[in-house]
Please model this.
Amino acid sequence: MESNLLRRILAAIVLVPSVVASVLWLPHAWFAGAAALFMAVGSWEWAGLSGRASTMQRVAYTALTLILMLWLSLHLRHPGALLAACAVGVAWWVVALIRVVSAQRGSGAMSPEALWLHWVLGWLVVVPAFCALVLLHGIEAPGRWWILLLLAFVWSADIGAYFAGRRFGRRRLASRLSPGKSWEGVLGGTAACLAIGLGVALGMGEASPSRWTIPVLAVGVALVSVLGDLLESLVKRQAGVKDSGAFIPGHGGVLDRIDSLCAAAPCFALAVIGLVGTRMLR
Model:
């Protein structure tokens, strides 16, 4: 356990500064390309979780996903189109919640879907999240900081859940899907996320009338991110694997790291646009 934790920490030391630098300093088009490439790696792993896709099919699916995201970033420049893509993502995660609850209760299927359906569901997971990141990055000056805030929320929720679950975890959150997750972990992750939100709100000062919406966003992200984690756990359980891949030492695959982000990003983007308005979009 300690050696795995050490690998997770070392990987984070390398990855986190790289992600932060990409968000802050890459031009918008380059950021969209980098985000599309990272999500495409996740789609490669998603295709593998079907358990039936050949290598050539996985390559074709990954390439098609990458092309789709790059096309969207080039042609859906109007904020309304990106907002619509985020709304589709939010609707999908409502459906995903029903699927997860049904599977946990034993009333939902635990066998893999048809290959074409599995691929479509993969697009619903990664593409709206990509559109949400592009949308946030396109907001004038504060846009990049909104992305960093989203990442801080997702990461703090994951870290808080990990340590609270290890120390206090007793009551299983979804024993059929992910026996290692507990309600205490959810509370710990939410508390860590809320602490970040309160700190940001206090740091914004009295000049920002909407600053106390930040802690509300923090709690929302913490709760929605759990859904992304549980859905991937369901898909991995269907495939009979522990991790989506081995791309990141100590963390598993890329999909294991972005599952929470994929669920939270579309919801967060819609909430932020509700706060700042589309007038601030480039």
User: Anything to note?
Assistant: The longest strand covers residues 178-182.
